[in-house]
Amino acid sequence: MVSLSKSVLSSIYVSLLASSVNALIPIEIVGKRFIKPAPKEGDEGEVFFIKGVDYMPGGASGYSSNSKSDVLSDADACMRDAYLLQKLGANTIRIYSINPDVNHDECMSIFNSAGIYVILDVNSSDSGEYLDRENPSSTYNGQYLENVFKRIEAFKNFPNLLGFFAGNEVINDQGNSVKNAPPYVRAVQRDMKQYIAKHADRAIPVGYSAAEIDDLRAATYEYFQCNIDGDEKDESKSDFYGVNSYSWCSGSSDWGSSGYSKVNSTFQDSSIPVFFSEYGCNKITPRTFDEVSEGVYSGLIDTLSGGLIYEFSEEANHYGLVDLGTDGSATLQDDFDNLQSQYNKTDIPDISESDVEDPTLSTCNSTKIQSLYKGFGNFTLPDQPDEVSDMIDNGLNSTNVGKLVEFDNSPSNYTITDADGNEITDASISINPTATINEQQTTAVPTEASTTKSASATANAASSSSSSHSSSKGAAAGNFEINAGGLMFMMGVGIAALL
Ligand SMILES: *[C@@H]1O[C@H](CO)[C@@H](O)[C@H](O)[C@H]1NC(C)=O
Ligand SMILES: *[C@@H]1O[C@H](CO)[C@@H](O)[C@H](O)[C@H]1NC(C)=O
Ligand SMILES: *[C@@H]1O[C@H](CO)[C@@H](O)[C@H](O)[C@H]1NC(C)=O
Ligand SMILES: *[C@@H]1O[C@H](CO)[C@@H](O)[C@H](O)[C@H]1NC(C)=O
Ligand SMILES: *[C@@H]1O[C@H](CO)[C@@H](O)[C@H](O)[C@H]1NC(C)=O
Ligand SMILES: *[C@@H]1O[C@H](CO)[C@@H](O)[C@H](O)[C@H]1NC(C)=O
Ligand SMILES: *[C@@H]1O[C@H](CO)[C@@H](O)[C@H](O)[C@H]1NC(C)=O
């Protein structure tokens, strides 16, 4: 803990006033819950539920490693979509593939200001950017991990980065993928967490997103959530776990027939946060999303931490809430309105951090996992290749490290049309200062009282390498480099917690 003098604090304060950059509070993990720490030091954090949407405009072809653009490179499109996500009532998006060499600062800053957290997958289907699920040893190498680490570099400084998915549906059948892939996914989680511990200012959570294969569901979860040999520091475990589920179809399913009761019992004793990383069956359209208010945020609320509806934009597989034209125009679909009213109906409980059960240690048990699915449970992870260890030791020296920036908070220039065909004209995002760590910056002029009090505030300058399954109490850990009016400075989170 470093005490800052009154004059230092005042000058930081003034700089903040000049800035429009409000950093969101990074989400932490305690036991099976996500926690949003309180903006003020000493106040209690709250359990955070994901109300989200999967976000990949353009689908898989929206990404190419050769392209200079990706889904987070057009600020005007991000302004359009941040507005729409706010209107919808979402607080999180999941993005599948980004180009680590592209600048994402404006888009991430827009989503940050709109109160939208991001969960990022670190792979793509391009060569050298994925783990081969059938023959993972052929792709588990320096080239792959360099691509993964570049994504960590590009996103590690964004406070609204909720976490990384180390793998998406890598185990996707009961053949070679389940036989060969599991220890490699754990190895990638290990490597990512080692890299983050050395080169990021906070313990960014890393998890896995599982395909919907009922026979494998319990075994896969057991495999990823446990600590090998009961080692508390085991870096290869998942910090959180995503389940893809399309089993509740609008208008035709209920708690029992959807299998949600089974989901509830499978995960009810979970040691880490579990949520739907994709959901929203589209067999019957328009979707009414009954599973939102009748399942995910009611029957499953004690077990899961919410979920992400698949998906924001209309693509070939017809799951879109919004139809995006080639000219960048957005037309809301009936699904958008229906999901909006579902989100509006959900009654998310307020749970204080102190009411969350303490984390439990779950020791990996191959016998138990094999009783759930025969042949699953190989905890002999591949050795880390030397070139990967070297990158972890030295860092990538990446030239593309993202950071929050100021942006022009005027409505998107793209046309937005609602589901009734009316154009929406004032599509600007609203910024909720109470959601941010530096909430005091929105106060017009600091009063004498607050200035005096700030003299006793302390800056938590310690960088956090604590594992994310333990609770780091108080203010969010880590520093955020903010470019305010051309001034670069490091802002200790504690400074934000002016009492
Ligand atoms: C909309 O266009 C104007 C003029 O080209 C530009 O100044 C403004 O930044 C654009 N808005 C956004 C949100 O990009
Ligand atoms: C990489 O992405 C592709 C396409 O999204 C997916 O099928 C594959 O399972 C992913 N691989 C990993 C390691 O996540
Ligand atoms: C779902 O699981 C929770 C524990 O996480 C339990 O309290 C609740 O009773 C379960 N609901 C049903 C309907 O079984
Ligand atoms: C949400 O519901 C409230 C009443 O419960 C209503 O006043 C409000 O307009 C609704 N908002 C949206 C965006 O549907
Ligand atoms: C592992 O799981 C099996 C089957 O559930 C159980 O019998 C055994 O006691 C467990 N081993 C340990 C060390 O907990
Ligand atoms: C377990 O995984 C390792 C790779 O980490 C592999 O070399 C070994 O053959 C696997 N063991 C079994 C029994 O499949
Ligand atoms: C990192 O980059 C800097 C500036 O580009 C360079 O001076 C330095 O040698 C690089 N370090 C490594 C380990 O490549």
Walk me through this protein's architecture.
- By secondary structure, the protein is of the alpha/beta class.
- The chain has a single domain (29-394), classed as Glycosidases (TIM Barrel).
- Helices cover 28% and strands 17% of the residues.
- The protein is built from 14 helices and 19 strands.
- It has helices at residues 6-17, 75-88, 105-113, 142-155, 176-180, 182-199, 214-225, 260-267, 290-296, 334-345, 366-372, 386-394, 448-454, 493-496; strands spanning 2-3, 28-30, 33-36, 46-48, 50-54, 92-95, 117-121, 161-168, 206-210, 240-249, 274-281, 306-309, 322-324, 330-332, 416-417, 423-424, 458-459, 479-484, 487-492.
- An 8-stranded parallel beta barrel has the order 5-6-7-8-9-10-11-12. A 4-stranded mixed sheet has the order 13-14-15-16.
- α4 (142-155) runs parallel beside α12, α6 packs parallel to α12 and α7 (214-225) runs antiparallel to α11 (366-372).
- The longest helix has 18 residues, at 182-199.
- It is globular.
- The protein starts with a strand and ends with a helix.
- The structure holds 2-acetamido-2-deoxy-beta-D-glucopyranose (7 copies).
